[in-house]
């Protein structure tokens, strides 16, 4: 059997088998089962701090947490809201916790009638437990704090327990989703207590496809000096409680496009540990889990950290530092290759959008053409190598027939044949490079479109959102047709090869079936790549025709 056909079959099987491992299966939309918290209108830009007189029940933690707690009495809680240019944050006097964050620049899809609210109803975004030296804990969400001071820049709370005092101050960073948190936790007997910071058990979905959003629920953390790691909710349910030792640069709870993260000071780290648990469930896509990280205050009881409650907007995450832009690790087994390429692709696409003021759909079209032009020389070399292999096939077959009883002589003559045509033993494999070279960039574009909030809700032509599948399946069909045309041009003037012809018909259909539920922007990019490759493929076909027209069918030997 022809070696090129075998190589093509292996590559096809690799694409079909590896791609689902890297790309998660498409989700079916369903109704959101979690109600979002009430948002504060963003029309007032006075940055006022408003205390609501009506009491509210203390925010409850998820049922998965079962700490050993000292008995406390739930007190009526008051909420206070602080409005910044980017978000409105809500706080509760019960535990001095953050119970909501409404983002002014982002809207719930579809419809765009409500601002994105990160908190689920009844679940705070951030809460605390005090861990005494004796080992018992105090659930501070059941402890009443009073407002110590309030202004447009900060709000602070204080409480006095029987055995300890605690104060918490929130300071808001201008033009940022960062909130700096500092405070003091002191025991009356002078013993050293620790503070557990409790992350939300999930975020309220603001997407049209709520199940797909739920599939992205995860806790993610970065240990000092290490790469970011992720624990999706299904993994926590399957493996049971997950404990990670510090020190940590940050730890966060995320969904597809938003997250709330707890970050260590810029020059420092959390001692930890961090613990993640989830209730047992039969659901394939769990919706709830719980996570916390333990902080150890200094000898005087002082502690400090930062909170990021906002979008996974790449440039803002980069500005936060501490590797926070990797709060959404992806790429599966090939993360070490795909993540750096994705970072480069993302930077280029954002730069093009900013510089040329173009819709991201046009940016993808231009980017696809530029990538194809940049790869032109390498593709040209690989295609010509494949062309030379085709030209020497008659001599190669005659040599194999002549020396089939003498393998050593066959190998010697084979090396002479390759040398006479300026080829090496690896030349037969370089013809496959045109198929492999664009794949890492293609995978990177997939993850960029699937996970980058800048593409969320971006319309283009008939598409309402290029980060979702084409509802009319037009682009997958265009992608398949252009791939078929590319294969047809590539087979022109080639020696008869039934296997190659079959693959030329089969692969476009397989790719359409694979890409039909992928982001529309990815199909647009791939279709543009195919169209941009046609001139080069046509030129190679002409060279093949000229070679076939020569008297011997092959170039003269040196």
Please give a structural write-up:
The protein has helices spanning 3-22, 210-215, 233-239, 314-320, 335-356, 360-374, 376-391, 393-402, 407-420, 427-430, 433-436, 439-451, 474-491, 498-515, 520-549, and strands spanning 49-51, 79-83, 87-92, 97-107, 115-117, 127-131, 137-139, 146-150, 154-160, 164-172, 178-187, 194-199, 218-223, 228-232, 242-244, 248-254, 258-263, 274-277, 290-295, 302-311. It is of the alpha+beta class and 558 residues long.
Short description:
The chain has 558 residues and is an alpha+beta fold.
Helix content: 25-40%
User: Can you tell me the overall shape?
Assistant: elongated
- Topology, number of strands: 20
Strand order of the largest sheet: 8-9-10-11-20-17-16-13-14
CATH topology of the largest domain: Beta-galactosidase, Chain A, domain 5
**CATH top level label of the largest domain:** Mainly Beta
Distance linking N and C termini: 30 Å
> Overall mean pLDDT score?
78
Largest sheet: 9 strands, antiparallel
Number of self-contained structural domains = 3
Proportion of residues in β-strands: 15-25%
Q: Examine the secondary-structure arrangement and name the CATH architecture of the largest domain.
A: Distorted Sandwich
């Amino acid at each position: 059997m022809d070696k090129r056909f075998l190589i093509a079959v292996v590559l096809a099987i690799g694409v079909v088998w590896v791609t689902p491992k890297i790309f998660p299966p498409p989700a079916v939309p369903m109704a959101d089962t979690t109600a979002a918290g009430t948002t504060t209108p963003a029309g007032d830009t006075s940055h006022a701090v408003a205390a609501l007189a009506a009491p509210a029940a203390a925010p409850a933690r998820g049922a998965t947490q079962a700490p050993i707690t000292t008995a406390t009495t739930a007190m009526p809680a008051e909420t206070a809201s602080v409005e910044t240019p980017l978000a409105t944050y809500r706080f509760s006097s019960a535990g001095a916790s953050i119970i909501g964050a409404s983002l002014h620049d982002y809207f719930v899809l579809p419809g765009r009638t409500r601002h994105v609210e990160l908190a689920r109803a009844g679940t705070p975004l951030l809460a605390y437990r005090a861990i005494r030296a004796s080992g018992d804990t105090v659930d501070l969400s059941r402890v009443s704090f009073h407002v110590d001071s309030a202004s447009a820049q900060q709000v602070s709370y204080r409480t006095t327990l029987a055995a300890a005092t605690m104060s918490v101050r929130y300071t808001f960073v201008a033009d940022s989703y960062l909130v700096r948190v500092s405070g003091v936790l002191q025991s009356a007997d002078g013993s050293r207590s620790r503070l557990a910071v409790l992350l939300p058990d999930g975020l309220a979905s603001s997407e049209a496809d709520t199940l797909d959003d739920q599939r992205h629920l995860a806790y993610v953390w970065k240990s000092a000096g290490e790469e970011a790691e992720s624990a999706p909710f299904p993994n926590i349910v399957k493996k049971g409680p997950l404990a990670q030792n510090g020190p940590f640069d940050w730890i966060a709870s995320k969904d597809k496009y938003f997250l709330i993260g707890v970050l260590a000071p810029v020059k420092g780290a959390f001692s930890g540990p961090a613990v993640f648990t989830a209730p047992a469930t039969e659901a394939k896509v769990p919706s709830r889990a719980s996570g916390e990280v333990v902080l150890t205050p200094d000898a005087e009881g002082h502690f400090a950290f930062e909170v990021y409650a906002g979008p996974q907007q790449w440039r803002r995450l980069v500005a936060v530092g501490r590797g926070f832009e990797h709060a959404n690790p992806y790429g599966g087994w090939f993360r070490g290759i795909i993540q750096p390429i994705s970072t480069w692709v993302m930077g280029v696409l954002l730069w093009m959008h900013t510089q040329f003021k173009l819709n991201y759909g046009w940016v993808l079209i231009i980017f696809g053409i530029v990538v194809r032009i940049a790869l032109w020389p390498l593709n040209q070399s690989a295609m010509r190598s494949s062309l030379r292999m085709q030209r020497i096939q008659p001599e190669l077959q005659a040599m194999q027939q002549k020396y089939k009883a003498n393998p050593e002589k066959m190998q010697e003559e084979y090396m002479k044949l390759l040398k006479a045509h300026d080829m090496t033993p690896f030349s037969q494999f370089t013809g496959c490079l045109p198929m492999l070279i664009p794949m890492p960039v293609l995978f990177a574009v997939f993850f960029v479109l699937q996970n980058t909030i800048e593409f969320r809700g971006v319309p283009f032509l008939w598409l309402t959102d290029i980060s979702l599948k084409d509802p009319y399946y037009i682009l997958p069909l265009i992608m398949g047709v252009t791939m078929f045309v590319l294969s047809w041009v590539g087979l022109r003037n080639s020696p008869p090869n039934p296997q190659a012809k079959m693959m030329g018909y089969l692969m476009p259909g397989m790719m359409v079936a694979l890409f039909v539920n992928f982001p529309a922007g990815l199909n647009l990019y791939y279709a543009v790549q195919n169209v941009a490759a046609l001139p080069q493929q046509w030129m190679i076909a002409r060279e093949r025709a000229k070679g076939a027209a020569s008297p011997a069918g092959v170039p003269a030997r040196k």
